[in-house]
Amino acid sequence: MPFSEDFLDELSRRNDIVDVVSSYVPLTKRSGVNRFGLCPFHGEKTPSFAVNSERQIYHCFGCGKGGNVINFIMEIENLDFRDAVRFLARRAGMEVPEDDQDRDRGRRSRMLELNREAARYFYGQLIAPSGAPAQEYIRRRGIVNMVKPFGMGYAPEGWQNLTDAMTAKGFTRQELVDAGLARVGKSGGLYDYFRGRLMFPVIDVRGSVIGFSGRILSDGEPKYLNSPDTLVYSKSRSLFALNLAKKSKCGYILLAEGNIDVVSLHQAGFDSAVASLGTSLTPDQARLISRYTQQVVIAYDADAAGQKAAQRAIGILQPLDLKIRVLKIPGAKDPDEFIQQNGPTAFKNLIERSDSQALYRLEQAAEGFDLTTDDGRVGYLKAAAKLVASFPGSVEREIYGIRAAEKAGVSKEAFLAEVARARRQAAAAAKKKLDRESSSPLRAVQPQARQLRFENVRSAVAEEGVLNLLCRFPEQFGGLPLTGADFTSPSLGRMYDAVTARIRQGRSVSTAALAEQFSPEEMALLAKILQRDDEIPAAAAEKAMGDYINKIRSERDRASAGDDLRSYAEKLKQTKGYGS
Ligand SMILES: [Zn+2]
Question: What CATH class has 361-435?
Answer without folding.
Answer: mainly alpha
